[in-house]
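Hypothesis: this fold can be encoded by more than one sequence.
Test: take the structure tokens below, design a sequence, compare later.
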């Protein structure tokens, strides 16, 4: 059973920083692409950043220069360093990953989400 668990969300003032983590646990043979998405009430879920295996990192335009995505393959963990946060970054942040759960089969998984609230 594979699970993605996010952590690191919370309340921060505008201009502050947070670091989100997403750890894959269970039977994980390998992880292909990983991504962070976010969603606010009444809006569509949007892609914030994606990091593949050897693929270019892609960021949502509004977070470029402020957010940095990275991954530690040995720990099956992805991070999102968020700096210069604004109230517009307030959302539930979700982790998403393509995981090889049984050789050679991959499945797409979502985490449960972590709330990020930026006060003005």
């Amino acid at each position: 059973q594979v699970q993605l668990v996010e952590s690191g969300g919370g309340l921060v003032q505008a201009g502050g920083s947070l670091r989100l983590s997403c750890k894959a646990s269970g039977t994980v043979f390998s992880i292909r692409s990983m991504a962070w998405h976010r969603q606010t009430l009444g809006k569509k879920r949007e892609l914030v950043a994606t990091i593949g295996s050897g693929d270019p990192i892609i960021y949502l335009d509004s977070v470029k220069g402020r957010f940095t995505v990275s991954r530690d393959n040995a720990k099956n963990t992805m991070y999102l360093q968020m700096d210069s946060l604004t109230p517009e970054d307030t959302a539930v942040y979700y982790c998403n990953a393509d995981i090889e759960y049984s050789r050679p089969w991959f499945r797409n998984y979502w985490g449960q989400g972590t709330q990020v609230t930026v006060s003005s």
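The radius of gyration is 14 Å. The CA atoms of residues 34 and 97 lie 4 Å apart.
Hypothesis status: open.
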